[in-house]
Amino acid sequence: MTGRPPSLAAQTFTGDSQSIHRLVLDVRRGEIPAYASTPAVAHRTLAGLLDARSPRLLPSTTDSVFAREPLPTGRRRPTVPFLPRTRLLSPEEQRIAVECFARAVAAGELTSGPAVAQFEQALAEFLGLPHAVATSSGTDALIIALRGVGVGPDDEVIMPANSFAATENAVFACGAVPVLVDVDPERHTLDPTLVEAAITPRTRAVLPVHLYGRLADAAGVHRVAREHGLRVVEDACQAIGVAGVGRYADATVLSFNPYKNFGLTGKAGAVLTGDSELHARMERLAYHGFAPGEKNVKSDVWGFNAKIDNSTATVATGLLPGLTLNNYRRAFLAHRYIDALADLGTAGQLVLPAFTEDHAWHLFPVRAAAGEAARDALRARLQADGVETDIYYPVLTHHQPTPLREKLFAGVSLPRTERLNATVFHLPLHNGLSVTEQDRVIEALHAAVHATAH
Ligand SMILES: Cc1ncc(COP(=O)(O)O)c(C=O)c1O
Q1: Domain with residues 324-452, CATH architecture
Q2: Cβ(312) – ligand 1 distance below 6 Å
Protein backbone atom coordinates (compact mmCIF):
# COMPACT_ATOMS: atom_id res chain seq x y z
CA MET A 1 0.00 0.00 0.00
CA THR A 2 1.34 3.42 -0.84
CA GLY A 3 0.22 6.13 1.57
CA ARG A 4 -3.19 6.18 3.23
CA PRO A 5 -6.02 7.93 1.41
CA PRO A 6 -7.27 10.95 3.33
CA SER A 7 -9.87 10.14 5.94
CA LEU A 8 -13.46 10.98 5.19
CA ALA A 9 -13.52 13.15 8.26
CA ALA A 10 -11.57 15.76 6.30
CA GLN A 11 -13.80 15.49 3.24
CA THR A 12 -17.29 16.24 2.15
CA PHE A 13 -19.37 13.15 1.62
CA THR A 14 -21.04 13.39 -1.78
CA GLY A 15 -22.42 9.86 -1.99
CA ASP A 16 -20.39 8.93 -5.08
CA SER A 17 -18.06 5.93 -5.30
CA GLN A 18 -15.01 7.96 -4.22
CA SER A 19 -16.58 9.09 -0.97
CA ILE A 20 -17.99 5.63 -0.31
CA HIS A 21 -14.51 4.19 -0.89
CA ARG A 22 -13.01 6.50 1.74
CA LEU A 23 -15.82 5.73 4.16
CA VAL A 24 -15.35 1.97 3.76
CA LEU A 25 -11.61 2.26 4.39
CA ASP A 26 -12.22 4.40 7.48
CA VAL A 27 -14.84 2.05 8.88
CA ARG A 28 -12.74 -1.05 8.12
CA ARG A 29 -9.81 0.55 9.96
CA GLY A 30 -12.12 1.05 12.91
CA GLU A 31 -12.24 4.81 12.51
CA ILE A 32 -15.78 6.09 12.44
CA PRO A 33 -15.13 9.57 11.17
CA ALA A 34 -17.04 12.68 12.01
CA TYR A 35 -19.16 13.68 9.12
CA ALA A 36 -17.87 16.72 7.31
CA SER A 37 -20.90 17.81 5.34
CA THR A 38 -24.16 19.45 6.31
CA PRO A 39 -26.95 17.42 7.89
CA ALA A 40 -29.23 18.20 4.95
CA VAL A 41 -26.80 16.72 2.45
CA ALA A 42 -26.12 13.86 4.81
CA HIS A 43 -29.75 12.99 4.94
CA ARG A 44 -30.13 13.08 1.17
CA THR A 45 -27.07 11.07 0.33
CA LEU A 46 -26.70 8.52 3.04
CA ALA A 47 -30.16 7.88 4.39
CA GLY A 48 -30.09 5.21 7.04
CA LEU A 49 -26.40 5.33 7.71
CA LEU A 50 -26.30 8.71 9.33
CA ASP A 51 -27.94 10.24 12.29
CA ALA A 52 -29.74 13.07 10.52
CA ARG A 53 -30.09 15.06 13.76
CA SER A 54 -26.38 15.36 14.25
CA PRO A 55 -23.98 15.14 11.34
CA ARG A 56 -22.15 12.05 12.51
CA LEU A 57 -22.08 8.52 11.27
CA LEU A 58 -24.08 6.14 13.35
CA PRO A 59 -21.67 4.34 15.68
CA SER A 60 -22.93 0.96 14.61
CA THR A 61 -22.07 1.52 10.95
CA THR A 62 -20.11 -1.68 10.70
CA ASP A 63 -22.92 -4.12 11.31
CA SER A 64 -26.32 -2.50 11.70
CA VAL A 65 -26.68 -1.56 8.05
CA PHE A 66 -26.39 -5.10 6.73
CA ALA A 67 -29.21 -7.53 6.12
CA ARG A 68 -29.83 -9.75 9.10
CA GLU A 69 -30.39 -12.81 7.03
CA PRO A 70 -29.80 -15.83 9.20
CA LEU A 71 -28.44 -18.84 7.39
CA PRO A 72 -31.20 -21.41 6.98
CA THR A 73 -31.14 -24.01 9.72
CA GLY A 74 -31.87 -27.71 9.43
CA ARG A 75 -29.12 -28.39 6.93
CA ARG A 76 -25.63 -29.29 7.91
CA ARG A 77 -24.20 -26.94 5.27
CA PRO A 78 -26.51 -23.93 4.81
CA THR A 79 -26.86 -22.56 1.27
CA VAL A 80 -26.09 -19.10 -0.04
CA PRO A 81 -28.10 -18.16 -3.15
CA PHE A 82 -26.45 -15.92 -5.73
CA LEU A 83 -29.28 -13.37 -5.75
CA PRO A 84 -32.50 -14.44 -4.03
CA ARG A 85 -35.56 -12.87 -5.64
CA THR A 86 -37.41 -12.43 -2.38
CA ARG A 87 -34.61 -10.10 -1.21
CA LEU A 88 -34.23 -7.85 -4.26
CA LEU A 89 -35.77 -5.13 -2.12
CA SER A 90 -35.37 -4.97 1.66
CA PRO A 91 -38.57 -5.07 3.78
CA GLU A 92 -38.29 -1.29 4.24
CA GLU A 93 -37.83 -0.73 0.49
CA GLN A 94 -40.78 -3.02 -0.23
CA ARG A 95 -42.93 -0.92 2.11
CA ILE A 96 -41.86 2.31 0.40
CA ALA A 97 -42.42 0.82 -3.07
CA VAL A 98 -45.91 -0.44 -2.25
CA GLU A 99 -46.96 2.89 -0.70
CA CYS A 100 -45.63 4.87 -3.67
CA PHE A 101 -47.23 2.53 -6.19
CA ALA A 102 -50.58 2.63 -4.34
CA ARG A 103 -50.57 6.43 -4.50
CA ALA A 104 -50.00 6.38 -8.27
CA VAL A 105 -52.77 3.79 -8.76
CA ALA A 106 -55.25 5.78 -6.66
CA ALA A 107 -54.45 8.95 -8.58
CA GLY A 108 -54.74 7.15 -11.92
CA GLU A 109 -51.29 8.49 -12.79
CA LEU A 110 -49.96 5.27 -14.24
CA THR A 111 -48.16 5.99 -17.50
CA SER A 112 -47.74 9.77 -17.51
CA GLY A 113 -47.80 11.96 -14.43
CA PRO A 114 -45.79 14.34 -12.28
CA ALA A 115 -43.38 11.74 -10.85
CA VAL A 116 -41.60 11.32 -14.20
CA ALA A 117 -40.15 14.84 -14.25
CA GLN A 118 -39.62 14.78 -10.48
CA PHE A 119 -37.56 11.60 -10.73
CA GLU A 120 -35.62 12.89 -13.75
CA GLN A 121 -34.67 15.99 -11.79
CA ALA A 122 -33.71 14.06 -8.66
CA LEU A 123 -31.61 11.63 -10.67
CA ALA A 124 -29.80 14.36 -12.61
CA GLU A 125 -29.10 16.17 -9.34
CA PHE A 126 -27.83 13.01 -7.67
CA LEU A 127 -25.44 12.34 -10.55
CA GLY A 128 -24.46 15.99 -10.99
CA LEU A 129 -25.53 16.03 -14.65
CA PRO A 130 -27.82 18.60 -16.24
CA HIS A 131 -30.43 16.46 -18.02
CA ALA A 132 -32.08 13.06 -17.62
CA VAL A 133 -34.64 11.21 -19.72
CA ALA A 134 -36.12 8.33 -17.71
CA THR A 135 -37.04 5.38 -19.89
CA SER A 136 -38.81 2.03 -19.91
CA SER A 137 -35.50 0.13 -19.70
CA GLY A 138 -31.74 0.48 -19.96
CA THR A 139 -31.95 -1.21 -23.37
CA ASP A 140 -34.39 1.42 -24.64
CA ALA A 141 -32.18 4.15 -23.19
CA LEU A 142 -29.19 2.73 -25.10
CA ILE A 143 -31.13 2.72 -28.39
CA ILE A 144 -32.38 6.27 -27.78
CA ALA A 145 -28.88 7.47 -26.89
CA LEU A 146 -27.32 5.89 -29.99
CA ARG A 147 -30.07 7.23 -32.26
CA GLY A 148 -29.80 10.55 -30.47
CA VAL A 149 -26.12 10.98 -31.32
CA GLY A 150 -26.85 10.06 -34.93
CA VAL A 151 -26.09 6.33 -35.18
CA GLY A 152 -28.06 4.87 -38.08
CA PRO A 153 -28.11 2.15 -40.73
CA ASP A 154 -24.70 0.80 -41.78
CA ASP A 155 -22.77 2.86 -39.26
CA GLU A 156 -20.18 1.17 -37.09
CA VAL A 157 -20.03 1.42 -33.30
CA ILE A 158 -16.85 0.43 -31.46
CA MET A 159 -17.52 -1.57 -28.30
CA PRO A 160 -16.27 -4.48 -26.16
CA ALA A 161 -17.45 -8.07 -26.66
CA ASN A 162 -18.11 -8.79 -22.97
CA SER A 163 -21.39 -7.22 -21.97
CA PHE A 164 -25.04 -8.06 -21.55
CA ALA A 165 -26.69 -8.66 -24.96
CA ALA A 166 -28.55 -5.35 -24.62
CA THR A 167 -25.39 -3.43 -25.54
CA GLU A 168 -24.88 -5.09 -28.93
CA ASN A 169 -28.65 -5.35 -29.51
CA ALA A 170 -29.02 -1.58 -29.16
CA VAL A 171 -26.46 -1.15 -31.94
CA PHE A 172 -28.29 -3.67 -34.14
CA ALA A 173 -31.61 -1.97 -33.40
CA CYS A 174 -30.20 1.20 -35.00
CA GLY A 175 -29.29 -0.79 -38.14
CA ALA A 176 -25.62 -0.34 -37.25
CA VAL A 177 -22.95 -2.99 -36.61
CA PRO A 178 -20.72 -3.52 -33.56
CA VAL A 179 -16.98 -3.40 -34.16
CA LEU A 180 -15.38 -5.32 -31.31
CA VAL A 181 -12.22 -4.15 -29.58
CA ASP A 182 -10.23 -5.95 -26.88
CA VAL A 183 -10.24 -4.93 -23.21
CA ASP A 184 -7.84 -3.74 -20.58
CA PRO A 185 -7.05 -6.97 -18.69
CA GLU A 186 -7.30 -5.42 -15.23
CA ARG A 187 -10.53 -3.52 -15.69
CA HIS A 188 -12.23 -5.94 -18.11
CA THR A 189 -13.30 -2.81 -20.05
CA LEU A 190 -12.64 -1.30 -23.49
CA ASP A 191 -8.95 -0.49 -23.99
CA PRO A 192 -8.78 3.03 -25.47
CA THR A 193 -5.31 2.41 -26.93
CA LEU A 194 -6.87 -0.17 -29.29
CA VAL A 195 -9.77 2.01 -30.42
CA GLU A 196 -7.91 4.03 -33.05
CA ALA A 197 -6.96 0.98 -35.13
CA ALA A 198 -10.64 -0.03 -35.33
CA ILE A 199 -11.86 3.31 -36.73
CA THR A 200 -13.08 3.32 -40.35
CA PRO A 201 -14.96 5.92 -42.41
CA ARG A 202 -18.20 4.23 -41.24
CA THR A 203 -17.45 4.60 -37.51
CA ARG A 204 -19.96 6.88 -35.81
CA ALA A 205 -19.64 6.24 -32.08
CA VAL A 206 -17.72 4.49 -29.31
CA LEU A 207 -19.67 2.58 -26.67
CA PRO A 208 -17.62 1.69 -23.56
CA VAL A 209 -19.28 -0.49 -20.90
CA HIS A 210 -18.50 0.00 -17.21
CA LEU A 211 -18.62 -3.74 -16.68
CA TYR A 212 -19.34 -5.15 -13.20
CA GLY A 213 -19.59 -1.52 -11.98
CA ARG A 214 -15.97 -0.55 -12.67
CA LEU A 215 -15.43 2.61 -14.69
CA ALA A 216 -13.84 1.99 -18.09
CA ASP A 217 -11.02 4.35 -18.99
CA ALA A 218 -13.66 6.88 -19.95
CA ALA A 219 -11.25 9.80 -20.27
CA GLY A 220 -9.03 7.77 -22.61
CA VAL A 221 -11.97 6.72 -24.77
CA HIS A 222 -13.24 10.29 -24.90
CA ARG A 223 -9.83 11.59 -26.03
CA VAL A 224 -9.58 9.17 -28.97
CA ALA A 225 -13.21 9.74 -29.92
CA ARG A 226 -12.81 13.51 -29.99
CA GLU A 227 -9.65 13.31 -32.10
CA HIS A 228 -11.66 11.42 -34.72
CA GLY A 229 -14.95 13.31 -34.48
CA LEU A 230 -16.80 10.37 -32.93
CA ARG A 231 -19.57 10.46 -30.34
CA VAL A 232 -19.39 8.57 -27.03
CA VAL A 233 -22.35 6.77 -25.47
CA GLU A 234 -21.39 5.04 -22.22
CA ASP A 235 -23.19 1.97 -20.95
CA ALA A 236 -23.23 2.69 -17.22
CA CYS A 237 -26.12 0.27 -16.55
CA GLN A 238 -24.00 -1.44 -13.86
CA ALA A 239 -22.23 1.67 -12.57
CA ILE A 240 -24.71 4.07 -10.99
CA GLY A 241 -22.98 6.31 -8.45
CA VAL A 242 -19.46 5.86 -9.82
CA ALA A 243 -17.41 9.05 -9.79
CA GLY A 244 -16.56 10.01 -13.38
CA VAL A 245 -19.69 8.51 -14.95
CA GLY A 246 -21.17 11.15 -17.25
CA ARG A 247 -18.02 13.27 -17.36
CA TYR A 248 -16.55 11.87 -20.57
CA ALA A 249 -19.55 10.92 -22.69
CA ASP A 250 -22.17 12.58 -24.84
CA ALA A 251 -24.79 10.32 -23.28
CA THR A 252 -24.75 8.05 -20.22
CA VAL A 253 -27.11 5.13 -19.93
CA LEU A 254 -28.37 3.56 -16.68
CA SER A 255 -30.57 0.57 -15.89
CA PHE A 256 -32.90 0.25 -12.92
CA ASN A 257 -34.12 -3.28 -13.55
CA PRO A 258 -34.73 -5.10 -10.27
CA TYR A 259 -31.32 -6.85 -10.32
CA LYS A 260 -29.30 -3.63 -10.43
CA ASN A 261 -27.76 -1.64 -7.53
CA PHE A 262 -30.70 0.74 -7.89
CA GLY A 263 -33.36 -1.82 -8.70
CA LEU A 264 -37.05 -0.90 -8.98
CA THR A 265 -40.28 -2.87 -9.14
CA GLY A 266 -40.03 -3.49 -12.89
CA LYS A 267 -37.98 -2.55 -15.94
CA ALA A 268 -36.72 1.02 -16.15
CA GLY A 269 -33.66 3.01 -17.11
CA ALA A 270 -32.45 6.48 -18.02
CA VAL A 271 -30.13 8.40 -20.29
CA LEU A 272 -28.29 11.47 -19.02
CA THR A 273 -26.47 14.20 -20.88
CA GLY A 274 -24.96 17.64 -20.51
CA ASP A 275 -25.99 18.60 -24.04
CA SER A 276 -29.37 20.37 -24.05
CA GLU A 277 -29.98 19.80 -27.79
CA LEU A 278 -29.25 16.10 -27.46
CA HIS A 279 -31.52 16.01 -24.41
CA ALA A 280 -34.40 17.51 -26.38
CA ARG A 281 -33.85 15.08 -29.25
CA MET A 282 -33.75 12.06 -26.91
CA GLU A 283 -36.88 13.29 -25.13
CA ARG A 284 -38.73 13.36 -28.49
CA LEU A 285 -37.27 9.99 -29.51
CA ALA A 286 -38.48 8.49 -26.24
CA TYR A 287 -42.09 9.43 -26.91
CA HIS A 288 -43.40 9.24 -30.47
CA GLY A 289 -41.46 12.25 -31.75
CA PHE A 290 -43.94 14.57 -30.04
CA ALA A 291 -42.99 18.23 -29.72
CA PRO A 292 -42.15 19.28 -26.14
CA GLY A 293 -45.25 20.12 -24.13
CA GLU A 294 -47.55 19.17 -27.03
CA LYS A 295 -50.09 16.38 -27.01
CA ASN A 296 -50.25 14.29 -30.18
CA VAL A 297 -48.34 16.86 -32.24
CA LYS A 298 -45.14 15.56 -33.73
CA SER A 299 -42.01 17.55 -34.45
CA ASP A 300 -39.96 14.51 -35.46
CA VAL A 301 -40.95 11.88 -38.03
CA TRP A 302 -41.17 9.12 -35.43
CA GLY A 303 -40.22 8.07 -31.93
CA PHE A 304 -40.50 5.13 -29.53
CA ASN A 305 -43.00 4.56 -26.72
CA ALA A 306 -40.19 4.28 -24.20
CA LYS A 307 -40.68 6.72 -21.32
CA ILE A 308 -40.68 5.37 -17.77
CA ASP A 309 -44.17 4.78 -16.33
CA ASN A 310 -45.28 7.37 -13.80
CA SER A 311 -46.06 4.53 -11.35
CA THR A 312 -42.45 3.29 -11.63
CA ALA A 313 -41.07 6.82 -11.42
CA THR A 314 -42.99 7.30 -8.15
CA VAL A 315 -41.32 4.19 -6.73
CA ALA A 316 -37.95 5.38 -8.09
CA THR A 317 -38.31 8.75 -6.34
CA GLY A 318 -39.16 6.96 -3.09
CA LEU A 319 -36.19 4.60 -3.30
CA LEU A 320 -33.51 6.98 -4.60
CA PRO A 321 -32.49 8.27 -1.14
CA GLY A 322 -31.48 4.71 -0.21
CA LEU A 323 -29.16 4.19 -3.18
CA THR A 324 -26.02 5.45 -1.47
CA LEU A 325 -26.54 3.16 1.47
CA ASN A 326 -26.89 0.20 -0.88
CA ASN A 327 -23.74 1.21 -2.74
CA TYR A 328 -21.97 1.51 0.62
CA ARG A 329 -23.11 -2.00 1.58
CA ARG A 330 -21.74 -3.43 -1.67
CA ALA A 331 -18.41 -1.62 -1.36
CA PHE A 332 -18.02 -2.71 2.26
CA LEU A 333 -18.73 -6.34 1.38
CA ALA A 334 -16.36 -6.14 -1.62
CA HIS A 335 -13.57 -4.89 0.64
CA ARG A 336 -14.33 -7.70 3.07
CA TYR A 337 -14.13 -10.32 0.28
CA ILE A 338 -10.83 -8.90 -0.95
CA ASP A 339 -9.36 -8.97 2.56
CA ALA A 340 -10.59 -12.44 3.42
CA LEU A 341 -9.54 -14.00 0.09
CA ALA A 342 -6.16 -12.24 -0.10
CA ASP A 343 -4.29 -15.44 0.88
CA LEU A 344 -5.71 -17.22 -2.20
CA GLY A 345 -4.57 -14.29 -4.34
CA THR A 346 -1.08 -14.29 -2.84
CA ALA A 347 -0.80 -18.06 -3.34
CA GLY A 348 -1.53 -17.52 -7.06
CA GLN A 349 -4.77 -19.49 -7.04
CA LEU A 350 -7.29 -16.70 -7.54
CA VAL A 351 -7.05 -13.32 -9.25
CA LEU A 352 -9.03 -10.84 -7.15
CA PRO A 353 -10.28 -7.39 -8.18
CA ALA A 354 -8.53 -4.36 -6.70
CA PHE A 355 -10.51 -2.26 -4.21
CA THR A 356 -10.70 0.90 -6.30
CA GLU A 357 -12.67 4.11 -5.90
CA ASP A 358 -14.16 3.96 -9.41
CA HIS A 359 -16.39 0.97 -8.69
CA ALA A 360 -20.06 0.44 -7.81
CA TRP A 361 -19.49 -3.26 -7.09
CA HIS A 362 -22.50 -4.38 -9.08
CA LEU A 363 -20.78 -7.75 -9.35
CA PHE A 364 -17.80 -9.30 -7.59
CA PRO A 365 -15.58 -11.02 -10.18
CA VAL A 366 -12.82 -13.48 -9.30
CA ARG A 367 -10.69 -15.47 -11.73
CA ALA A 368 -9.24 -18.96 -11.46
CA ALA A 369 -5.55 -18.45 -12.15
CA ALA A 370 -5.11 -22.01 -13.47
CA GLY A 371 -7.61 -21.55 -16.31
CA GLU A 372 -11.05 -22.56 -17.50
CA ALA A 373 -11.07 -26.16 -16.24
CA ALA A 374 -9.99 -24.98 -12.77
CA ARG A 375 -12.73 -22.31 -12.82
CA ASP A 376 -15.38 -24.87 -13.73
CA ALA A 377 -14.14 -27.31 -11.08
CA LEU A 378 -14.24 -24.59 -8.42
CA ARG A 379 -17.78 -23.59 -9.35
CA ALA A 380 -18.96 -27.20 -9.32
CA ARG A 381 -17.42 -27.72 -5.90
CA LEU A 382 -19.02 -24.54 -4.53
CA GLN A 383 -22.39 -25.53 -5.98
CA ALA A 384 -22.18 -28.96 -4.32
CA ASP A 385 -21.34 -27.16 -1.09
CA GLY A 386 -24.46 -24.96 -1.38
CA VAL A 387 -22.83 -21.72 -2.58
CA GLU A 388 -24.19 -20.40 -5.85
CA THR A 389 -21.92 -18.54 -8.26
CA ASP A 390 -22.56 -17.22 -11.76
CA ILE A 391 -20.76 -16.03 -14.89
CA TYR A 392 -21.43 -12.62 -16.46
CA TYR A 393 -21.61 -13.17 -19.39
CA PRO A 394 -21.07 -16.75 -20.54
CA VAL A 395 -21.08 -16.10 -24.32
CA LEU A 396 -19.12 -13.22 -25.88
CA THR A 397 -20.73 -11.13 -28.64
CA HIS A 398 -18.62 -12.67 -31.42
CA HIS A 399 -19.30 -16.21 -30.19
CA GLN A 400 -23.10 -15.98 -30.01
CA PRO A 401 -24.53 -18.84 -32.08
CA THR A 402 -26.51 -16.71 -34.55
CA PRO A 403 -26.02 -16.26 -38.32
CA LEU A 404 -24.04 -13.09 -37.54
CA ARG A 405 -21.17 -15.10 -36.08
CA GLU A 406 -20.02 -16.07 -39.58
CA LYS A 407 -21.23 -12.95 -41.34
CA LEU A 408 -19.77 -10.27 -39.07
CA PHE A 409 -17.37 -11.85 -36.61
CA ALA A 410 -15.67 -14.76 -38.40
CA GLY A 411 -12.20 -13.23 -38.25
CA VAL A 412 -12.53 -11.55 -34.86
CA SER A 413 -9.95 -12.51 -32.25
CA LEU A 414 -9.91 -10.80 -28.85
CA PRO A 415 -7.28 -12.68 -26.83
CA ARG A 416 -7.60 -10.72 -23.58
CA THR A 417 -11.39 -10.70 -23.54
CA GLU A 418 -11.46 -14.40 -24.36
CA ARG A 419 -8.93 -15.30 -21.64
CA LEU A 420 -10.77 -13.25 -19.02
CA ASN A 421 -14.06 -14.78 -19.99
CA ALA A 422 -12.77 -18.33 -19.75
CA THR A 423 -11.56 -17.86 -16.17
CA VAL A 424 -13.93 -15.37 -14.52
CA PHE A 425 -16.84 -16.19 -12.23
CA HIS A 426 -18.85 -14.17 -9.76
CA LEU A 427 -19.46 -14.57 -6.04
CA PRO A 428 -22.72 -13.55 -4.34
CA LEU A 429 -22.79 -9.78 -3.77
CA HIS A 430 -26.07 -7.90 -3.52
CA ASN A 431 -27.73 -5.19 -1.46
CA GLY A 432 -29.25 -7.78 0.88
CA LEU A 433 -26.24 -10.09 1.41
CA SER A 434 -25.58 -10.59 5.09
CA VAL A 435 -22.12 -10.72 6.64
CA THR A 436 -22.92 -14.23 7.91
CA GLU A 437 -23.71 -15.39 4.39
CA GLN A 438 -20.54 -13.78 3.12
CA ASP A 439 -18.46 -15.61 5.74
CA ARG A 440 -19.98 -18.86 4.53
CA VAL A 441 -18.98 -18.05 0.90
CA ILE A 442 -15.43 -17.21 2.02
CA GLU A 443 -15.09 -20.45 3.95
CA ALA A 444 -16.55 -22.53 1.09
CA LEU A 445 -14.24 -20.91 -1.46
CA HIS A 446 -11.17 -21.68 0.65
CA ALA A 447 -12.32 -25.29 0.96
CA ALA A 448 -13.01 -25.53 -2.79
CA VAL A 449 -9.63 -24.08 -3.75
CA HIS A 450 -7.81 -26.49 -1.46
CA ALA A 451 -9.86 -29.47 -2.65
CA THR A 452 -9.35 -28.74 -6.34
CA ALA A 453 -5.71 -27.63 -6.17
CA HIS A 454 -4.32 -31.18 -6.44
C1 LIG B 1 -24.17 -3.71 -19.13
C2 LIG B 1 -25.66 -3.66 -19.36
N3 LIG B 1 -26.13 -3.00 -20.41
C4 LIG B 1 -27.45 -2.91 -20.65
C5 LIG B 1 -28.37 -3.47 -19.80
C6 LIG B 1 -29.82 -3.37 -20.15
O7 LIG B 1 -30.60 -2.81 -19.15
P8 LIG B 1 -32.15 -3.22 -19.00
O9 LIG B 1 -32.21 -4.60 -18.43
O10 LIG B 1 -32.69 -2.19 -18.07
O11 LIG B 1 -32.76 -3.13 -20.36
C12 LIG B 1 -27.92 -4.15 -18.67
C13 LIG B 1 -28.85 -4.76 -17.69
O14 LIG B 1 -29.51 -5.70 -17.84
C15 LIG B 1 -26.53 -4.27 -18.46
O16 LIG B 1 -26.06 -4.93 -17.39
Answers
A1: Alpha-Beta Complex (3.90)
A2: no
